[in-house]
Amino acid sequence: MKYSIIVPVFNRPDEVEELLGSLTCQTFTDFEVIIVEDGSQLNCRAEADRYSDRLDIHYYMKQNSGPGQSRNYGAERACGEYLIVLDSDVVLPKGYLQAVEDELQAEPADAFGGPDRAHSSFTDTQKAISYSMTSFFTTGGIRGGKRKLDKFYPRSFNMGIRREVYMRLGGFSKMRFGEDIDFSIRIFKAGCRCRLFPKAWVWHKRRTDLRKFFRQVYNSGIARINLYKKYPESLKLVHLLPMVFTLGVIALVIVSAVGRVMMHYDDIDKWYWLCAAPWIPLLLYSLIVFVDSSFKNHSLKIGLISIAAAFVQLMGYGFGFIESWWKRCVMGRNEFQAFEKNFYS
Q1: What's the order of all strands across the beta sheet hosting 3-9?
Q2: Total-model pTM
Q3: Are strands 116-117 and 202-204 parallel, antiparallel or unpaired?
Q4: Is residue 37 helix, strand or coil?
Q5: CB 195 within 8 Å of CB 110
Q6: pLDDT in tens, 195-221
């Protein structure tokens, strides 16, 4: 068996249905599918059974322990030479596994990962979120699938690793947030070769609305400080930018509010620019995002939603980063003490 595809699932049978459907269309067929139900109340056993005649599929139910430990549970039961970890909310193009196979045949790798894209069937909000997660104007393009000078750290929505390496490193840690980056860091520290496979991309739905997206990126901000506490060298300048953006937006709003108050008590013309000028950089940034997203998505509506998605992403991450920095670095709390509600709710 060449590949074992491991999918942790929590209350998402409809998503699993689409993923399994896309797996039946793969042009490379030497693989098995391992579904690990992570204590779901709404399970996907029926969906797995429906595809059992077309896929080599194995379904397991376990108590809830989070996605990282569920991946480890699946890895222990896998037979493939390589383990491919996917999120349940991805859909694969028919050439996905063949692209992985071609890359490995051309140049061996111990671990690898690929980028993601938005499918034409996604909602406008999902497309806007996808733009925000991959655009140069929001993430610097570091998650857009381009080859970079720095190391490539696979993310767990589309991540592969040689089974022997996975088991030797102990798989995913018990970190609740950022466990995939933690694993990628340990892969590099073990001296393993990790590569980006640009053609092994997936359609990734991410979150379906901006409220859920905020919670996702907020947790990512928390994860970045938790990773910093474990690996101080992992914190780069680019990771600070959402925090700087968040503080900058707050500062500009406060300055504008002060100007508005002064206009009320003093000569209006004298304080007009103090009230209005802080909005210029925010409007300029919004215009850049709007134009770029509208052009790439061929939709003015998606361009408008992308403005909201960009602010949600950067400020959600920034607030999570700031809170985690305060609790972990200033107050000196450990990972579980600082975010007990986030871990166990």
Answers
A1: 57-62, 31-38, 3-9, 82-86, 158-162, 111-113, 194-196
A2: 0.86
A3: parallel
A4: strand
A5: no
A6: 999 999 999 987 678 999 999 999 999
